[in-house]
Write a structure and sequence with these properties.
The chain is mostly helical. The protein has three domains: 44 residues, no CATH class; 50 residues, no CATH class; 39 residues. Helix content is 81%, strand content 0%. It is elongated. The two termini are 53 Å apart. The model has no long low-confidence stretch (mean pLDDT 85).
Length: 159
């Protein structure tokens, strides 16, 4: 804008601003609609509350981090994964497996933590005895099949 810096708000500055706004009125209206939707969904209020909980000294760091190259690349790669996730979840079998694991996630994590904190000796006899447990055998077979499929899929990466 070419308005007089000493007289901010002079008619020529306001006129230039109005001309710019009129040139971009469709885009501004679109942004206003998006903003209205974000307000109605509670997103803006949530963002304000989150920002209010961040101390002023961290806001500058947060702004730099969100604008960083790594954050932009990470966001781009995450957005690229969304169609693959939707495709996977559209398969009923895959969706059922993910739901079954998710519903048991508390138990799974508790057992994992307990096993890591209280490891048992794994002898060949102990593994043979575990093989007689139908739940263990089913889980071990599922994991072996999964590892085989993952191996095949990963071997095709970067071909």
């Amino acid at each position: 804008m070419t308005g007089n810096d000493e007289n901010n708000g002079s008619p020529d500055t306001i006129e230039e601003l109005l001309i710019l706004l009129m040139k971009e009125k469709d885009q501004i209206a679109g942004l206003a609609t998006i903003f209205k939707d974000l307000v109605e969904a509670g997103t803006i209020q949530t963002m304000l509350e989150l920002i209010g909980k961040v101390s002023p000294s961290n806001i500058e760091y947060l702004a730099k981090m969100l604008g960083s190259y790594n954050m932009k690349v990470g966001l781009y790669k995450t957005l690229n994964l969304i169609p693959a996730i939707f495709s996977a979840l559209s398969d009923e079998g895959t969706s059922d497996v993910i739901k079954a694991i998710a519903f048991e996630s508390d138990t799974i994590s508790e057992k994992m933590i307990d096993g890591a904190k209280n490891p048992q000796k794994l002898t060949l006899l102990h593994l043979l005895a575990l093989g007689k447990d139908p739940d263990f055998a089913a889980g071990a077979t599922a994991m072996i099949n999964m590892l085989s499929t993952i191996g095949k899929a990963i071997s095709r990466v970067r071909e």
